[in-house]
Batch of 2 targets.
Target 1
Amino acid sequence: MTDTTAPLISFSDVKKHYGEGSARVDALRGVSFDVTAGEVVGLRGPSGSGKTTVLNIVGCILAPSQGELRLAGEPVFAGGRWLRDDLRRLRLEAIGFIFQFHNLLPFLTSTDNVALVLQLAGQSRGAARRRAQELLDYLDVGHRRDAFPSQLSGGEAQRVAIARALANRPRIILADEPTAALDSQRAQVVMDLLRRVAIDQHAAIVVVTHDDKIADRFDRVLELRDGLLV
Ligand SMILES: Nc1ncnc2c1ncn2[C@@H]1O[C@H](COP(=O)(O)OP(=O)(O)OP(=O)(O)O)[C@@H](O)[C@H]1O
């Protein structure tokens, strides 16, 4: 991931089906879009239109059936196969995931939830905890660093989860309904944070959302219907 001018995410004529024969579902029927550094893009569409499938393919969790995926200019999937054999490392280093429910580990404090990702990437525990505390401060939850997830409010837990997603300074951030469980004010705080991250980290951010509270907070909205962009 070295080309600094190419779009960070480039999806070219991606098709994806699940199952075969009478059980076949065409989830994506030829989807193309680019997202550049600094952009916060919304991905909307009715249930079953293919949003999660797009997110999972960008996140290198799911292989397309056809088409091409480039990340920072580098072809990652093309010609029916992955072009990198270290997808786990790519995910860990280049991509941050944020989910609707924070998915924090209940037996770890805020600091340790964030530090764990850094330790998995090879940092020492001390360095990982220092970076975790810096990030929690950046997201205004530093004062909750020793709390366990069950002791956090929904908005605090979501900010800790964002800190975790940012831990490795990924330039691609994928969020699935990150504000659905939050009230309007907290949803705006989360969107402000994502915007700041896009700018400070030159990141490309894709947010799957049905949430009308944040409908006007995107640079662009991609609208999926039945596996096609409209
Ligand atoms: N593992 C799977 N096996 C079979 N079909 C699947 C699988 N995952 C998704 N699908 C189907 O593919 C289509 C697209 O699903 P996807 O989850 O991408 O939609 P979505 O827009 O994210 O929906 P929602 O808003 O309900 O989460 C749907 O028809 C879904 O039933």
Target 2
Amino acid sequence: MTALELENLTKSYGDRKALDGATFTVGAGEIFGFVGSNGAGKTTTMRIVLGVLAADDGQVRRDGRPLSLDDRRRIGYMPEERGLYPRMRVGDQLDYLARLHGLTPAAARTATTRWAETLGVAERLGDEVQKLSLGNQQRVQLAAALVHDPEILVLDEPFSGLDPVAVDVMSQVLRERADAGVPVVFSSHQLDLVERLCDRVGIIKSGRMVATGAIDELRTTDRPRWEVTGPTDPRWLAPLSGARVLSRVPSTGDGDRYVVETTDGDGQDVLRAALAAGPVHAFGPSRPSLTDLFRHVVTTEEAGQ
Ligand SMILES: Nc1ncnc2c1ncn2[C@@H]1O[C@H](COP(=O)(O)OP(=O)(O)OP(=O)(O)O)[C@@H](O)[C@H]1O
């Protein structure tokens, strides 16, 4: 069953249209990566889900019904501008947030300890937030989003500024929450990470979703692509009609590396053309990365919805 549905969200700030019919769904137990250029509308979308901002039009639904105030209280949110009290101690803050969401004092204490330990900040529970490094503050921010055992997670750039170990910890926590059935949506500009971690992604451009789906689905193109390492003379592909070079990376070692697009076939004609031009060191199918897909959709003027 679909856990979270955003349908046709529209929002303007004055005469600036920030969202123009944004629509996507996040299933229960699914990690959804929300990506887009600066100013594309990610934060605006997340604030609307949280209810801190009202949409001009459209709806957010949970399991098919409009998101209620009570549902919104069960969302774990990491805001882009962060939201911790700098002079409050880490432990007091987590405890306070847990109780604010309805946990008993004893349950709040247990949850505070649990999440501080999981996120590697247990030793800092007695310190003021402002005394922590930015990365550790972010770990506390995630603990703050999780301490009330939320049923939905909405995280605005949770990975920005984290060291690789903290990225691993954060990734594991998100996967573990998703495995427990929580729909997780997070925004990020770190596309390699999104590609690794997410079950599905949505790319937003100028307030409209221009691609949504599993990365493997988005990668599927009508035209096969091949990676060839070897030829150094760029004219090697000229005899092959219908094939074109998408990229060429010069190399001093095994020859240049090409990505070639063909209209159809199993690539053997590409391999033969390459071999006719000299030794071939590597040949195989090429699959676009999320970064390639992102570049493609955000630079294509009339990308479909
Ligand atoms: N409070 C506001 N008043 C006026 N315009 C705003 C406001 N908040 C956002 N905008 C505009 O709305 C558009 C969408 O902004 P939003 O912050 O949602 O983008 P974003 O995708 O989160 O960007 P980033 O990746 O830089 O965080 C931008 O053009 C932005 O300038």
